[in-house]
Amino acid sequence: MQAVDFNSDMGEGFGPWTIGDGVDAELMAYISSANIATGFHAGDPGTMRRTVERAKQLGVAIGAHPGFRDLVGFGRRHINAPAQELVDDMLYQLGALREIARAQGVSLQHIKPHGALYMHLARDEEAARLLVQNLQVVEPTLLLYCMPNSVIWQVAKELGHPVVREFYADREYDLSGSIVFTRKVRALDPATVAARVLRACQTGLVRTVEGEDLVIEFDSICLHSDTPGALELVEATREALDQAGIAVRNAACVIGQARSSHPRNTHG
């Protein structure tokens, strides 16, 4: 792997409240793409604007990070709602960030659903298909972040919508290729996380919770800003990538490079 995107969730406070270590501004110096909370699980208009401004200053690509309407649960509780309602909510959130970004002279690179909504779309074909169909009407070139081989990845591939496949630096995997989510993430060792990411980039393998290796293909590394010690984790991971000669580029550049290298590649 010669280049990879490095993304993190940003702007996930609300008014005067912050989430995690409150180090968004520092974190953004190490990443290439920022997923900005759009008000339903976290975020508010002022926070969205300030996050867009910071990303613009640093040349970091931005995307909408819509979630379930769940401020109290930080969007990590599943909500049973009809597919149309979920897609309406996501389009509403996408439009909010798009206009705030447009006022700053910035365009959106991508959309990445948050938390429980991300996992819902990874398995619910009706909601996934409806979202992709709507994106193709309102933003046909907007990159869609998703798990490789998930339902929404398969739907996007079928409909020809561009996707970005993710690898989670600070989450465990099981042998099915699914992320093992936990409500309270423990502190992680920066060197261990960096080594795990580097191994995935260089060999395409990740060690699962079952103790076996899983083959994984991805275009972007995700490290959550609310993971304890996130800044140290991001710094260590970025240093490991730089030392290994793996360039950190935004997702649009990585996907463009993959397409030019593999003209028949249809993964997005």
UniProtKB/TrEMBL annotation:
Organism the protein comes from: Pseudomonas fluorescens
Keywords: ATP-binding, Hydrolase, Nucleotide-binding
Name of the encoding gene: pxpA
NCBIfam families: PRK05406.1-3 (NF003814), PRK05406.1-5 (NF003816)
Subunit architecture: Forms a complex composed of PxpA, PxpB and PxpC.
Family assignment from sequence similarity: Belongs to the LamB/PxpA family.
Pfam families: LamB_YcsF (PF03746)
Catalysed reactions, as listed in the record: 5-oxo-L-proline + ATP + 2 H2O = L-glutamate + ADP + phosphate + H(+)
Protein name per UniProt: 5-oxoprolinase subunit A
Taxonomy, superkingdom: Bacteria
Record-listed E.C. numbers: 3.5.2.9
Function per UniProt: Catalyzes the cleavage of 5-oxoproline to form L-glutamate coupled to the hydrolysis of ATP to ADP and inorganic phosphate.
GO biological process: carbohydrate metabolic process
Residues spanning the signal sequence: none
Keyword Transferase on entry: no
The protein's enzyme class: hydrolase
Coiled coil (residue ranges): none
